[in-house]
Design brief:
Length: about 500
């Protein structure tokens, strides 16, 4: 933080959308916040149901005991001890239900924000950032799009990306500009090229936001190397770009070199924090990163709870949006997280022990998937896949050029549309697999089609949709049976 105080933070106000600029603070929340400052202040101002009338006295959630040697295995097999995480309305606990279930600031309760800020500090050590709660990364992302995007704005993203979210920006009038990828994720030099060649006269404002999924990129499963992250951050500085770091798979990393001696000496938290990837947030001296974390993939998607870490200026604007829309996240989740991370629950060290154990189990499933893939699919030479380092996805390449009906048109630079029948054949294959009882997500679902037709027109993404996204999170049987169908289906399809 010494460095951060020396470096002047850039003015980020130009990044705000007209909506964010026009937004007024929620006036009632503003007065409410003032009332919170001085303890003992009598608040007769708010329509807050009285806590003695909440029909909830306590909340008990049964969770795996964190004292098991390998808590995920013990829990999965059903042999493990359990522990109960309790919150009370009136009795002492980490966060009373009296507080958790009341109205509060949109950013969430201080107790929870502080706990997550501490988690962040020990993992990313971000210079000068604020933590605010979300209802998961989908909520956080869609709010960030509104915060930063005006009709006609262009945002950068990976050329295959999580379309469920990027589609949410389209009605806001935001254009997506795809950056080329290889097996290691988005290619920094292509990002630079797009920004450097951007013609504001014909294409409008140069992109000022990058949406990226650095770990287990959805759908390609790639994880950005530290080298690429550094390059991307530097390009973002050079061109004054905000980085939306959507990182729900961050905690699910494989082949980690976790030191037993570090665990013994300093505990699980330190041992994991030492080996988890460096985030964009961790290098963010400018305050241009908005990092989105979620409990969805490490606890459960139904948690609907996540946290956004960003510069105080952007956090304040984001909180204004939340204060005037969804308001603070549900009290149940905030109470549960407080107890779970607190001294009567798993604690932060126990939380990391759970995460480490979860990584081992998903790593085992990934290894099984790759083994079965090797045995039942790859042998034919009709498909191939890289082993993912994190998350849940395998990006399977279909070697369509081996198909008897695969056609390529004459290459000419002027051609803007597809130059092969890749998309048609993939559609056929998708339907064939469906008939055989298998669903894999076709790459076309995730392909960002560049509508401006300029720099990217040679990228011909429709000719590069010969991939499926598959996940290895299912049971061993799902993996064995699914890939058996896949292998057979592929052979039949190619011998057409
Ligand atoms: N509409 C009106 C008229 C209200 O008075 C309130 C709460 N004060 C709300 C909406 C917000 O309600 P909720 O807590 O269900 O979001
Ligand atoms: N972002 C990415 C890249 C995802 O893969 C997902 C979940 O599938 C989400 C966001 C949504 O996460 P959440 O459940 O936290 O809203």
């Amino acid at each position: 933080s010494d460095l951060s105080s020396k470096r002047r933070q850039p003015d980020l106000s130009r990044h705000l959308s007209a909506e964010a600029r026009a937004r007024l603070p929620n006036p009632i929340k503003s007065i409410w916040k003032v009332a919170q400052v001085k303890p003992g202040t009598i608040n007769m101002g708010n329509g807050d149901p009285h806590h003695t009338l909440y029909p909830i006295g306590e909340m008990n959630l049964v969770v795996p005991s964190i004292h098991e040697q390998d808590p995920v295995q013990a829990w999965r097999i059903g042999t493990g001890e359990q522990q109960t995480v309790s919150s009370y309305r009136d009795e002492p606990c980490a966060l009373s239900l009296k507080t958790a279930m009341a109205y509060s600031a949109g950013a969430g309760l201080k107790h929870v924000r502080d706990a997550l800020a501490e988690l962040n500090d020990r993992i990313h050590a971000p210079p000068k950032h604020t933590v605010t709660l979300s209802l998961g990364n989908a909520d956080a992302l869609t709010k960030c799009f509104r915060l930063l995007g005006d009709p006609g704005d262009s945002f950068l993203c990976e050329e295959f990306t999580f379309s469920a979210m990027t589609n949410a920006a389209l009605p806001l009038g935001i254009n997506w500009v795809p950056i080329r990828m290889d097996k290691d994720g988005l290619i920094p030099s292509d990002m630079e090229l797009i920004l450097a060649n951007w013609d504001e006269d014909s294409r409008g404002k140069r992109p000022h936001v990058l949406y990226t999924i650095p770990c287990s990129q959805n759908p390609t499963g790639s994880t950005l190397s530290l080298e690429r992250r550094r390059q991307i951050y530097q390009i973002a500085r050079d061109w004054d770009v905000i980085i939306l770091e959507d990182d729900p798979y961050f905690f699910l990393q494989y082949d980690l070199d976790i030191r037993q001696t570090t665990i013994e000496r300093y505990g699980f938290f330190r041992a994991m924090a030492d080996v988890l990837p460096r985030s964009f947030l961790s290098m963010d001296y400018d305050g241009r990163v908005m990092r989105l974390d979620s409990f969805s993939k490490i606890i459960a998607p139904g948690m609907r709870l996540g946290w956004v870490t960003c510069n105080e200026f952007l956090a304040e604007k984001l909180d204004m949006l939340t204060d005037s829309s969804s308001q603070h996240p549900h009290g149940f989740g905030q109470a549960f997280v407080s107890e779970l991370l607190g001294s009567r629950g798993w604690g932060t060290d126990g939380f990391m022990k759970w995460v480490a154990s979860l990584c081992r189990e998903y790593e085992r499933r990934r290894n099984l998937f790759m083994d079965v893939f090797e045995r039942k699919v790859a042998g034919s030479g009709l498909a191939s896949a890289e082993t993912p380092q994190s998350g849940m996805f395998v990006w399977i390449k279909i070697n369509l050029d081996l198909h008897p009906r695969y056609k390529e048109l004459e290459h000419t630079k002027l051609l803007v549309g597809p130059v092969s029948n890749t998309a048609e054949l993939m559609d056929e294959l998708f339907r064939k697999l469906l008939e055989c009882g298998l669903v894999m997500m076709p790459a076309s679902t995730f392909a960002i089609v560049d509508r401006s037709g300029c720099v990217q027109s040679e990228s011909h993404i429709a000719d590069r949709v010969n991939y499926f996204r598959a996940t290895f999170v299912g049971t061993d049987k799902t993996i064995e049976d699914g890939l058996a169908i896949f292998g057979r289906g592929l052979e039949e399809f190619f011998c057409y």
